[in-house]
């Protein structure tokens, strides 16, 4: 009998604990306040990328100027423009890197800098499931070595950067425009390029073809007035000046006469 009563007591305590847990979960579910979504910090991955950045810097001290890890745990290698070929070859062929997939190439224009263009190369290592970003710099006149001898996929990417930004790549087999039309002048992605452009394209009915002419704006830029013509707050209506009221009264008296 005593053992039976003890079992009943244990069962009651278990049911009470489960009920308390269910009440806590229900209370949490009914709360309206939610915690903000924050990217989890992976300190182990960050330290591992920092160590690898130092390793690359020690292997190529002539070309690597800085190695850093962003807040999203992405490794960036800043190099000298002359080190594009040796650094990318190292990242592709070294057994501890194997970044054999060339993902993308783009540029950033900062006119206030002496070297206004910042070239950004993105690579992927399928062997180690890692990504790396290589950055270098260039100006309007200095040519940058083409990455075609190392990665054939850089062909159209370099043509796009040349077309949009005007960065010249030496030893490129076919460096010509890829996005703009034939005979286009200028580079649209530069910060000093006007938003309206210099020329416009239209179809000519007489010539029966598309012609390119200097830009002519059909109308001037309008001056937009953001004040509303409607009474937003009629209870706070401004009273008219006394001179206008006196003038209205005089006109009314003259009309009566």
Helix share bin = 25-40%
Output the strand order for the largest sheet. 1-2-5-4-3
- Uncertain parts: none
Q: What oligomeric state do the depicted chains represent?
A: single chain
Structure summary, number of beta strands: 9
Mean pLDDT: 81
- Cα radius of gyration in angstroms: 35 Å
Brief descriptors of the model:
257 residues, alpha/beta, 5-stranded mixed β-sheet, two-stranded parallel sheet, 32% helix, 21% strand, flat
Detailed description of the structure:
This protein has 257 residues and is α/β, with parallel strands linked by helices. Helices cover 32% and strands 21% of the residues. The chain is built from five helices and nine strands. It has helices spanning 2-30, 43-59, 84-93, 154-165, 242-256; strands at residues 64-69, 75-79, 101-109, 117-125, 130-138, 144-145, 169-170, 199-204, 209-214. The chain has a five-stranded mixed β-sheet with strand order 1-2-5-4-3. Strands 6-7 form a two-stranded parallel ribbon. It has a two-stranded antiparallel sheet with strand order 8-9. Strand 3 and strand 4 form a beta hairpin.
């Amino acid at each position: 009998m005593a053992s039976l009563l003890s079992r009943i007591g244990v069962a009651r305590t278990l049911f009470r604990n489960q009920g308390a847990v269910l009440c806590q979960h229900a209370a949490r579910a009914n709360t309206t306040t939610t915690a903000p979504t924050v990217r989890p910090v992976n300190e182990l991955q960050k330290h591992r990328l920092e160590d690898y950045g130092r390793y690359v810097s020690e292997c190529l001290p002539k070309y690597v100027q800085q190695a850093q890890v962003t807040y999203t745990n992405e490794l960036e290698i800043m190099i000298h423009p002359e080190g594009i070929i040796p650094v990318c070859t190292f990242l592709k062929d070294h057994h501890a890197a194997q970044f054999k997939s060339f993902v993308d190439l783009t540029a950033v224009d900062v006119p206030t800098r002496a070297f206004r263009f910042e070239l950004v190369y993105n690579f992927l290592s399928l062997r180690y499931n890692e990504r790396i970003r290589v950055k270098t710099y260039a100006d309007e006149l200095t040519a940058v070595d083409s990455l075609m001898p190392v990665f054939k996929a850089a062909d159209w990417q370099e043509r796009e950067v040349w077309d949009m930004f005007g960065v010249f790549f030496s030893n490129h087999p076919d460096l010509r425009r890829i996005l703009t039309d034939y005979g286009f002048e200028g580079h649209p992605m530069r910060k000093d390029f006007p938003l309206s452009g210099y020329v416009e394209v239209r179809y000519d009915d007489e010539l029966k073809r598309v012609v390119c002419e200097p830009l002519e704006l059909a109308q001037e830029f309008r001056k937009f007035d953001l004040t509303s013509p409607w009474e937003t707050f009629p209870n706070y209506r401004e009273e008219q000046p006394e001179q206008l009221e006196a003038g209205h009264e005089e006109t009314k008296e003259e009309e009566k006469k």
